[in-house]
Amino acid sequence: MPEGINNGSSLQNPSNDSGEIRMKFNQNWCASPSKVASHFGTSGVAVAAATGITHPLDVLKVRLQMQLVGQRGPLIGMGQTFVEVVKKEGTRSLYLGLTPALTRSVLYGGLRLGLYEPCKNFCELAFESTNIFMKIASGAVSGAFATLLTNPVEVLKVRLQMNPNARSRRGAISELQKIVRKEGVTALWKGVGPAMARAGALTASQLATYDEFKRVLIKRTPLEEGFYLHLMSSTVAGLVSTLITAPMDMVKTRLMLQRESMSDGAYKNGFHCTYKVLITEGPRGLYKGGFAIFARLGPQTTITFILCEKLREIAGLKAI
Length: 320
Prior knowledge:
The protein is mostly helical and 320 residues long. The chain has helices at residues 2-29, 33-65, 78-89, 98-114, 116-127, 132-161, 169-183, 192-220, 227-256, 270-281, 290-314.
């Protein structure tokens, strides 16, 4: 009889477990349309605001990455590049490609940050864990998928950033038409492989670091949800993501600006581009524009997370 009781209780555990899983599923996935809109909207608005503030640094980063293509030699720094760009092209050139950049930020940023939590919830349901590896996987999937959908806007943005004559919205449309006419529709997905790898690595390093570091700070320090916790966590996330993604960002830019790089011969893919950069420009070539990347990505990460957390609080959503 005791054995039968034990068997009965053991049969109840799976039922309880499945009930808990169903309850978690309902809590995590059965959201109203307004909640879903708020979830993705807060992410998109936060990324767009951060992008608008840091866009001049993104223009300088692209110019730095296109220095001495296929050559070794001394590189000029961000300060000198800034002076040369402003002197030759005017201050408005620092906002080249702003329209597609903001468009991409709303779409890409909303998807990249917005998909992280559902992916993490799925990992929790599937593997009953939200450890650091699950967070890294969630970030990688959400970042790569968001880039796959929005790569054409990124191609348009970097083309405009290298074209001082395209300053207006009409310039963006004309550039888009020119790319399709001369290079075909598939040209809008140039560099999509390295872009997806970079976005996956960026989102994984950024969100997983932010999420995990915030958890550690809450557990081991008196800090609670608020400005200082978000500031410290986002600063660390910005540093880690820059170190990991700078080479991928450089390769992505070179592939997207393929026509401007033809003096060194066409890059077949991301691996070929990396190989040619290492052979012709040395290891430092992979970190061209690295300081500009951090100068942009650091503040952008901080602004994005602080603003996103505040908007989520206003919208009645839980913190990241």
